[in-house]
Records
---
Amino acid sequence: MKGTLQFDYTAVGHVTVDVLADGTRRPGGSAFYSALQAARLGRRTLILTQGVPGEIEQMLEPYRDELELRVLPARRTTTFETSGWGPTRAQHVLAWAGPIERDLKLDTAILHLAPVAREIPGHWRARGAFVGLTPQGAIRDWSAASGRVSLVHPARAVEQMAARCDALVLSRHERPHCETLIERACDGGAVVAITAEWRPTTLLKARASSLEVEVPVVAELVDDLGAGDVFAAAFFVALEAGGAPASAAAFATAAAAVRMQSAGAAAVGRTDAIEARLRSVAAGGGLRARLTLPGRSRSGG
């Protein structure tokens, strides 16, 4: 039996400054949104990030009662100029905090590798942890003079890392760049969720049929920034707790729907709001799974 762990959920990646079209600056990044979602699901949560400590601490001050923060010092905080929605969102890099090069030893039940700007750590240890990966930030490139982000195939080290993971979440737009990464993850036993906006989420696992889980309709979509990260956190938490992939994906789509119904991080939902959304969708006959995928159990779940 495991001893008491310091954290239930640890997200590793850059917390960013997101500069919106109207000039507003607010915290962003996969590590931030996913960690906040995990915290609002009742998990003891840590963000391990890199940047200018004072800047990041000030940005996250409103959330410090909900989660812990550890900042590896850097000369800059990763900053994106962001505009648009979903797959048409444009982002330009204004500053970069650099790669996370520390050898990380973490005491956590869930480790979420959440790169946003090719900062993914090369060395990490989290004995017995459930490991989730969102590879979006590992396939980004902004070498063009415009500074606009484009997608490239991940480095071989990232593909090898995927084989050590329990679950991956990526979008259908990222999938063409990640086929080898997906193959390695599935061969290693991971569940892979491929989101597709309003279209069904596809679940993949080695030696099993693919599964499509329908997503709930969001009648009034206000803000989708961070919705994919919210999905990932809810998915990882549900899987680690022993949920079957289909039910975990249904819970995660409900979490993303709650997030998109209002603006900013304040819209990240708590368990009761997500469960209410699930009940509402179920009453309307939504969130159906088209095929059966074997469940994945974990000891102690």
---
Amino acid sequence: MTRVGVGLIGCGTWGRVHARTYAAHDAVDFVAACDLDARRAVEFAQSFGARRQYSDWHDVVNDPEIQAVSIATPDFAHGEIVVAALRAGKDILVEKPLATSVEECENIVAARERAGVKLMVDFHNRWNLPFVNLRSMLAAGDLGKLQMMNIRLNDTLYVPTEMLSWAKRSSPAHFLGAHLVDLVRWLSGAEVMRVYSVTRSEVLRSAGIDTPDFFQSILELSDGATAVIENCWILNSNSQSVFEFQGEFVASRGTAYVDASHHRMIEVYTDKGAALPDVSGAPELYGRPVGFCVAAIEHFIDCVMTDKQPRVSAEDGLAAARVLKAIEDSARTRTPID
């Protein structure tokens, strides 16, 4: 079997999901792990069987044995790496958001067109079974025409204060809202035409992190439907789950409710507190990583192996970036943005 040489740039929390997936995949030659923290790159290489470790991402981009690159760096550190990898002719899987500005995303789309390679943005909720089932029901007409959506994807204070050392260089909109904007577009098949958003900055600023606490946004879609999306970084850290992900979807002939976080398939209570362990995102099954987050990465590998175009494109990343820019502009000006 021909194997795909893969390099991973970014050995953080989500980079670990990528590394676990590549280490377990028969079609992948995990060539190199790269992180600015050289010790972390060494740890990843040793733990997941990468043959080399780098502390400079240029080394991954220029490695002739690497055909495909996974980019799991912080939100603000995608653009330059993606463009360089495209110019080097690598196929790319990049974590969301594609980049944190519309201009960077436009440059990436243009570079991808010139390079003629594959680029997939890891909007992994397109593999999340509750949403996949919902989209199938909508496509079949079982629920009628989608009328309105109310979706919230929130994190506890642990995320910006402890998990992310770079939270002040991102926001709940980019870190969380990118997922929901793509979900709205994908489920509805429509584009976002108008945005009205509000935000506040109090809790995190008082903790020394100069970034918004939350965004609450109303999106008007091209087909007449609406979506209310909520993203925050200030849920209490004593919550049973580090995130909250729930949605209500009202259509002309039916309503669907999704609980993608507090589903209570398994609850654990110990002296350390209560927890809702992951059973769908990236758990292990007999020593192998499974779940919808893993399935998205495996889809990218399959596309590289079989020369297919990924289900998520650079244009999807650009479309999300434009909506996120409108959300930020609306929250700043306190006016609707077309």
---
Amino acid sequence: MGLHIVNLIKEGDPNPYTVLNAGGKAPVLLICDHASPAVPKAMKFIGLDESMFKQHIAWDIGAEDVTRRLSEKLDAVAVLSGYSRLLIDVNRQPGDLNSIPEKSDNTTIPGNLKLGKKQQLARIESFFWPYHQKVSNALAILQRRGPVPALISIHSFTPSLGGNIRHWDIGVLWNRDPRLAQPLLEKLRKVENGSFHVGENEPYSGQKLGYTIDTHAGVAGLPNCAIEIRQDLIDTTAGAQFWADTLAKILMKILGNDNLHRVERF
């Protein structure tokens, strides 16, 4: 007999995803893997003080705000994850050692220690697959409508990590498909007369980390990239608006290129 997997999301808890602007006309899907610091009430913050869920280890600070604003500016559909990455990281392969982290940025996560198979599967079934199924469905609707959609994932990163200062203002992550990433990098490097520090596959490499865009777009031959913005630039309303406006202006031009919207496998 198979394992009976308990749904960890109960009545009154948030949904495992949020869809914005479901009827958006732009040929692109925006996603935000780490949009929320939420935890189901019954899980009691997995042994951490509630204040920890306001910090970067729990979510990508500012990314949800930028995604919402960009969705509105572009008239694009967006899918936001509903729960903290400390429960399970939806941008990692289930079973990866960092998928359900026992430690994050030197903080031990008591509720993640020595989880059994049934407990791990409950996390996957409750939080991971519902989000990914919604991303898959949203892309399918856009592709059937036409033209071939692009997929853009919005993230944020800390100004420093492990004592190392991260000087980039924004980074573009990509793996094999350059169609979206390269023109985006070129145009970002001209923002504010070239005064911003723009990283290519920084502060993370899209060739090493990018489960969501690889799974939903890379394999399918859809143009894709991830955008990383430094958190102290988007942790205010004004900052989030500036970067949403900046990205919208650039992406409107790139997404207007008909040659972008076709299936190509690299």
